[in-house]
Amino acid sequence: MRYVSTRGQAPTLDFSGVLLAGLAGDGGLYMPETWPEFSADDWRAMRGLSYPELAARVMAPFTAGSIDQDTLLGLCREAYAGFTHPATVPMVQLDRDLFAMELFHGPTLAFKDMAMQLLGRLFDHVLTQQDRRVTIVGATSGDTGSAAIEACRDRARLQVVILHPLGRTSAVQRRQMTTVLSPNIANLALEGTFDDCQDMVKAMFADAPFRDDMQLSAVNSINWARVAAQIPYYVAAALALGAPDREVSFAVPTGNFGNVFAAWAARRMGLPVARLAIGSNGNDILARFLAGNDMSMRPVTPSLSPSMDIQVSSNFERLLFELLDRDASLCAAIMTGFRQTGRMAVPDASWRQATTLFHGEALDDPATEAEIRRLHRETQYLADPHSAIGIAAARACALPGIPTVAMATAHPAKFPDAMLSATGLSPALPPHLADLFEREEHFRVVPNRLDAVQDAVRASVLKNAA
Ligand SMILES: *Cc1c(COP(=O)(O)O)cnc(C)c1O
């Protein structure tokens, strides 16, 4: 399989190439050159497979030419062995036609583990093949950093440097990162905001000598391999509910659009998906787009669901590319215009087409809390704020007679304050994290200056190489 950029000006690459590259050289996102499609019989033949077997079967067309099928299966088995639920992604029935699929039974209790656990192993495999080492740098407001650290710890070919804003992540999220004491992991607490952290990462990539010297790489949500690793659980959910002989809908709490784009991809590959509901918090750019083709940036406001506090959903460019029938130059022009004006000029026909499949639902904090409380009262189910938004979107957008699966993206124990305030209960951390608050923390505070951050990255690379 070859991959093309949504902006049409970068060289095509194979799977290993897009894995290591992340963003395309022209600023675009990599997409498969053609979509693999499975027939109804192909889907039926996947019934009864274990989750790792299913994941390898669904992803095989994407890695073809780079990673052979046995290797991929081995990596999937290892990636999901650390999940604490025997079903990997269990489903809970909340109503006659409403289900929650729990994607948070991995090491850091958020759905990012689904892709990141596999990505760490894919990186290790490809770098060993090529006898290379890379330095992964990333900015996090919480979940992405801890998932990347857990997935990459103790891997000799990877040095991982994660920037978080000093004093601005939750205690659970910070400790999940800073208590990992592996020599290849460095946590930098930047004296600034999350946006400053992101700007630092961008600036390091823009500094070509530094980038080459450090062999910088990224595992952020625009990496195609992350999208690919999120497709299999949609297949698992649909098969469990009767696909390919019955349609299903999905509801996804959405920030960067990566997770819900994976659902779109599953449909594109032939899975019978009736509707895709997008849940947002008060940062509702996607809901406004679907309601009236208004894709205009507003300032980000903090919410109870911090992993969705985003104004530019970077993976939306992938859907846009498809809505434009893969016209890369038009896609590039629209994205450049969006950067310049803060408003995305999506052609009316494309917008109309999007609204036939996607439905948006935005919940502010009081509505999110009310949904958590209602769910607990009526079903005894404890949903974290992100998952509750997905479930509310599922209820708002359900079609009669078609089951809807809401993606539950974080364990409620990750957000104890919100849970306590909504339900009076504070869910316990699972056993493997029960002593999180007794563990030793290690991080380095760095001033909000590029030279200081680059010095810290260089120091951590040298220390690990020594
Ligand atoms: C990252 C994240 C999301 C948003 O996922 P996207 O792929 O960015 O849309 C939702 N919920 C939780 C808990 C997350 O960590």
UniProtKB/TrEMBL annotation:
This protein's pathway: Amino-acid biosynthesis; L-threonine biosynthesis; L-threonine from L-aspartate: step 5/5
Domain called Threonine synthase N-terminal: residue spans: 2-80
Catalytic activity: O-phospho-L-homoserine + H2O = L-threonine + phosphate
CDD domains according to UniProt: Thr-synth_2
Family stated for the protein in its record: Belongs to the threonine synthase family.
InterPro entries: Ser/Thr_deHydtase_PyrdxlP-BS, Thr_synth_N, Thr_synth_N_sf, Thr_synthase-like, Threonine_Synthase, TrpB-like_PALP, TrpB-like_PALP_sf
Name of this protein: Threonine synthase
Lineage, uppermost ranks: Bacteria, Pseudomonadati, Pseudomonadota, Alphaproteobacteria, Acetobacterales
EC number(s) on file: 4.2.3.1
GO molecular function: threonine synthase activity
